[in-house]
Design brief:
The complex is a heterodimer.
Chain A: H1 3-24, E1 32-39, E2 45-47, E3 56-60, E4 76-84, E5 94-101, E6 104-111, E7 119-129, E8 138-144, E9 154-159, E10 165-166, E11 172-173, E12 175-177, E13 179-185, H2 190-209
Antiparallel strand pairs in A: 1-13, 2-9, 3-8, 3-10, 4-7, 4-9, 4-13, 5-6, 5-8, 9-12, 10-11
Helix pairs in contact in A: 1-2
Chain B: H1 10-30, H2 39-50, E1 62-63, H3 65-71, E2 80-81, H4 90-102, H5 109-114, H6 117-136, H7 142-151, H8 156-162, H9 168-188, H10 191-205, H11 212-225, H12 230-259, H13 284-290, H14 293-302, E3 304-305, E4 317-318, H15 321-350, H16 360-364, H17 370-397, H18 404-429, H19 433-463, H20 478-491, H21 496-524
Antiparallel strand pairs in B: 1-2, 3-4
The chains are: A alpha+beta, B mainly alpha.
Chain lengths: ~220, ~525
């Protein structure tokens, strides 16, 4: 390949790469998640059943379990639930995950089809930060909205954890959602990580498109 | 491999260096401790050797309470049985060196736990150079060779494993070196190369038992390539076979001595891997059709990241989204190019007359036989038809794919199956050594894939669920497959610039996978 063509390729690559990086990071750097409490005692776990219309489960948050939270006090609250989709079944409809803090409720609606099997799913509430939540009477509510039976997701439950739940008829249950409570945060080293990896990728791209770089010494 | 660095273009040296920088940066700044598959066990093995405790024994060997507790986010845990002690020690001996040396300089546990990761990072960087050297044996455009050799470094799983304590990347390196001598031997018939290939196969076999599956077909191919006097052929065949199996035999004898079974692994130990009281009776086709086995092998080859770094058991993420589509497109393109070239050669041999259709094994001894030549034509036709049938079976049996990329994986496997079947008779009837290298690569890879698939099927029957569906198990055959692809590519005269652009796409896909999938997974894993 001629040197001129290689140089043109390299310049074209650099322009395209800048556009690619810009589009990759349009939503900002991906956020991290820092937990402040969790109920993940999942040695005995079982499915909650399909989260169809009428399904309701309220999970009280026991503040005795809370860990160090001051460093993320001003960050948005996130709830992370272990959900499942019945072995990658195609599910339909939506469900709701609410965070009830005293009398106020924060709601997130989610499409069932977006849920991956046996993965912790994050629900972040932009309107409430950790310091506004901690030590207040709070609970997580998982509700079915309109998923039809046979096409709904489920949540994993555990028993014997230091937390309890109840259904919409306030029937108390020994079972608990497998969940954690935390904050969305930007890891301090995220910018450096991004710069290092982007630089390595850009240099690799240049070398691939301009392999005769040593011919110009 | 004294010539690995000599006369290498600056660009491939720099690409290899960039890979080393990336892997080391991931190892020390990004990949959480114990987030590499089985890393607690690998590290415990390395530490046993660095402590001077000798090679650990499966069933007795323990992962220390300190490692177990760290992997459980600081909660106190007792020592656990180390299932990784099932592996031969070559990699661990090497990885123990930096740990042993570093102990003289630091007592910081976090640093010491990560130090053996250096070996995988350096093995990965060296692998790129060795693969480039393999491609240098063939008449390949320099830009294509550089791009293809560095492409493996843009597979997220390869980079991920290169950033951790594990033997898979070092195994890749050893198998790549064995492949380098293999293709050299097929091309130049220098007997030293055959012995060096056998020696590196033995070293690979002393690194991981998976490499044993490679030894058998590769040695047969080496022996098949011999020419000259019959007695000398037998003598060297024995020499090469004994060299290749030497170190694996030592490991088998050890297993015989301690367990009474030369192939004993953790799967045979009910305490480490609980098995069903009554094994399942399902058929192989049921196993392949009921579970997305084939597509998951490919998917996990591209990216199945994570392990126990979160501290709450095993958590992993499959790399998905458009990076996985780019990868699936790349392997479909590669397997299609191979299939086209194999078909072209089959068709040209079908219509060939004269020396082109004399079996090489006979050509070597200067015997010409027209009747064999005519029969050979039916063999080509039969192999092509068989290839079509096998590929059709793969497509129909494994149709239970769950995504676009999954379907693309199945298609790529079907193309590979077709090419491997069609390539088998061509080995016997082709005089061009480069073409034979391509066919050997395909046939050996097919043998390896079938054996690994069948092994996982056996495990499924015993434990009741698919286990060990890991793309990294195929690392021993990747250098061979890369060779086959590159030879086919050079025959079709595809521009190096186009190949480089394809690899640039893979690099960008990997960047996206790390920035938007893998690193957020690490950051969010503290559940």
């Amino acid at each position: 390949m001629s040197s001129l063509k290689a140089q043109k390729n390299a310049i074209f690559f650099l322009i395209a790469f800048v556009v690619f990086i810009a589009s990759l990071l349009t939503k900002g750097l991906p956020a991290g998640y820092s937990k402040i409490m969790s109920v993940t005692k999942d040695t005995k776990r079982f499915a909650a059943g399909e989260i169809v219309s009428g399904f309701y489960m309220e999970q009280a948050i026991e503040w005795a379990l809370v860990e160090d939270y001051e460093k993320v006090g001003s960050s948005p609250v996130c709830v992370s639930l272990l959900l499942a989709n019945y072995g990658d079944r195609k599910n339909k409809g939506i469900f709701k995950v609410s965070l009830k803090v005293e009398e106020k409720s924060y709601e997130i609606y989610k499409k069932a089809e977006e849920i991956r099997d046996n993965v912790f799913q994050h629900f972040c509430y932009e309107d409430i930060v950790i310091s506004d939540l901690v030590h207040k009477q709070a609970s997580i509510i998982l509700e079915g909205v309109d998923s039809p039976r046979g096409e709904a997701i489920t949540a994993w439950l555990t028993s014997g954890a230091d937390a309890s739940s109840h259904d919409h008829e306030t029937k108390a249950s020994e079972n608990s959602l497998i969940f954690s409570l935390g904050a969305r945060y930007q890891p301090a080293q995220q910018k450096i990580r991004t710069i290092v990896l982007v630089t390595i990728c850009a240099l690799s791209g240049l070398l691939l498109l301009w392999p005769d770089i040593d011919a110009h010494k | 491999m004294k010539s690995v660095f000599v006369n290498c273009p600056l660009s491939i040296l720099l690409l290899s260096l960039l890979f080393a920088v990336k892997a080391l940066y991931l190892a020390f700044s990004i990949t959480p401790l114990w987030d590499i598959p089985d890393e607690t066990g690998h590290f415990a093995y390395v530490r046993d050797l660095a402590d001077g405790n000798g090679i650990p024994l499966l069933g007795d060997s323990k992962i220390g309470a300190d490692i177990e507790s760290l992997a459980a986010a600081g909660r106190q845990r007792p020592p656990a049985l180390n299932w990784i002690a099932q592996h031969p020690p070559a990699y661990y001996i090497i990885a123990a060196i930096p740990l042993k040396v570093a102990r003289s300089f630091t007592k910081d546990e976090q640093t010491l736990f990560r130090l053996p990761r250096i070996i995988a990072a350096l093995s990965g960087a060296l692998s790129l150079l060795v693969v480039f050297r393999i491609l240098g044996v063939f008449n390949v455009e320099k830009q294509s060779a550089i791009a293809i050799a560095s492409a493996i470094g843009f597979i997220p799983m390869f980079s991920h494993l290169a950033s951790g304590t594990n033997h898979d990347i070092t195994l890749f390196l050893f198998c790549a070196i064995a492949t380098y001598y293999f293709v050299h031997y097929v091309k130049n018939s220098k007997r030293t190369d055959a012995y060096l290939c056998a020696a590196w196969l033995a070293i690979a076999g002393a690194t991981k038992m998976t490499a044993w599956v490679l030894i058998c077909p590769m040695v047969i191919a080496l022996v098949f390539e011999f020419n000259g006097e019959l007695r000398a052929r037998f003598r060297h065949a024995a020499g090469i076979a004994l060299t290749a199996v030497s170190l694996p035999t030592v490991w088998m004898l050890r297993n015989m001595f301690y367990f009474g079974n030369p192939l004993y692994t953790a799967v045979n130990d009910n305490e480490m891997v609980p098995t069903l009281i009554e094994p399942l009776q399902s058929s192989f086709t049921f196993y392949i059709s009921q579970f997305p086995i084939l597509e998951d092998f490919v998917r996990h080859f591209y990216g199945l990241v994570g392990w126990a770094g979160a501290g709450d058991g095993i958590r992993m993420i499959q790399v998905g989204g458009w990076p996985s589509i780019i990868f699936a497109s790349a392997i479909i393109t590669a397997t299609l190019i191979i299939a086209i070239q194999v078909t072209r050669l089959s068709i040209s041999n079908l219509s060939a007359t004269g020396p082109g259709c004399i079996p090489t094994v006979l050509a070597n001894t200067r015997v010409e036989n027209r009747s064999l030549c005519c029969r050979g034509r039916w063999v080509y036709l039969g192999a092509i038809l068989l290839g079509i049938v096998f590929a059709g079976l793969v497509l129909t049996i494994s149709a239970k794919h769950t995504s676009l990329s999954g379907g693309m994986h199945i298609l790529a496997i079907a193309l590979l199956v077709f090419s491997s079947a069609a390539a088998l008779p061509l080995i016997f009837f082709t005089t061009n050594p480069e073409d034979r290298c391509m066919f050997y690569g395909l046939v050996i890879a097919a043998f390896f894939i079938v054996v690994v698939l069948y092994q996982t099927y056996g495990i499924y029957l015993d434990v009741g669920y698919p286990r060990g569906i890991q793309g990294r198990y195929f690392y021993p055959i990747v250098p061979l497959l890369i060779s086959s692809f590159t030879i086919a590519l050079s025959r079709l005269q595809i521009s190096g610039n186009l190949v480089a652009m394809g690899v640039v796409l893979l690099a960008c896909a990997e960047l996206q996978a790390f920035l938007n999938q893998i690193i957020p997974f690490y950051d969010r894993a503290g559940l």
